[in-house]
Amino acid sequence: MRQLIAGNWKMNGLLEASAALAGALRRGADGLDCDIVICPPATMLMTVAHVLVGSPVEIGGQDCHAKASGAHTGDVSAAMLRDAGARWVIVGHSERRADHGETSAQVRAKAIAAMAAGLTPIVCVGETEAQRVSGDALSVVGTQLAESLPEGFAGVVAYEPVWAIGTGKTATEDDVRAMHAHIRTCIGAGPRILYGGSVKASNAASLLAVPEVGGALVGGASLVVEDFLAIAKAANRG
Ligand code: PGA
C-alpha cells in the first residue's frame, strides 16, 4: 500500500502564510508517489482546501467532537470538518490526551463520529518516556489500541512515542520495528501504521523503510515546505 505522509500543523500560522505554504506544497507535490494529507488549524481549513482544489494533497482536521452537533461550545464536529473540505481527522493526539485529558474511550467515540461523517480517522497512540523506561511500552500501546479503535475501524493508526514528539529524539529503528509489528498483531491486516515523533528530512528514509511503517505523521517539519516534501520523497515506493 502507498505510504501516507501526514502533516500536523498544530496551532501554528495565520491565514496568509498558511495559504502560501499550501500553495508551495501543491506545486511541489506533483509526481509524488505517496498519499499526502495536511492538517491545518480549523480556521484555515476552507482557505487551504480552496488552494488545494484539484491537487492530490488532501486535508484533515486535528480533532473533532464525538457528537454530531449540539451544545458543545468551542468544539467542531466531524461533519463540519468534512463540510470545510477535510477528508481526514487526527484523533487522540498525545497533546490532546495530555492537555484536555482525553481518554481512549473518548478517542474511540471520536473515531466513530469521524467515520460516520465520511472522514478517515488517524488514531494516535504512544507511550511516555517513563512507560518506555519501565518496559511497558508495548502493553501501554496495546491497551490504547484496544480502547481507542472501534469495531470495523476504517482508518489509520499513528504510533507516536510521546517523548519523541517535538523533542528531536526519535525511536530507534529496532524500537519502531518491534512496536509496529506489535501494533500489526493487535489490529490485524489492513490499516496503515504511521510513525510520528521528530520525523525530519534526515531520518525519514530510514524510518520509512522499517517493515510495517506505512508512512509518517509529521509535526514541526511539516511547516517547512522543503522539509515536508523531502520526507514525502523518501516515501516514494508505491
Ligand atoms: P513532531 O510532531 O514531528 O514535531 O515531533 C509530531 C506530531 O506531534 O504529530
In brief:
The protein is of the alpha/beta class and 238 residues long. It contains ten helices and eight strands. An eight-stranded parallel beta barrel has the order 1-2-3-4-5-6-7-8, surrounded by six helices.
> Any idea how many domains?
1
Strand residues, percent: 15-25%
User: Gyration radius, to the nearest Å?
Assistant: 16 Å
**Unreliable segments (pLDDT under 50, ≥5 consecutive)?**
none
Class per helix and strand makeup:
alpha/beta
Number of strands: 8
Percent helix:
40-55%
The strand line-up of the biggest sheet is 1-2-3-4-5-6-7-8
The fold-level CATH name is TIM Barrel
Number of helices: 10
CATH top-level class:
Alpha Beta
> What's the CATH H-level homologous superfamily?
Aldolase class I
Overall spatial form:
globular
Overall pLDDT metric: 96
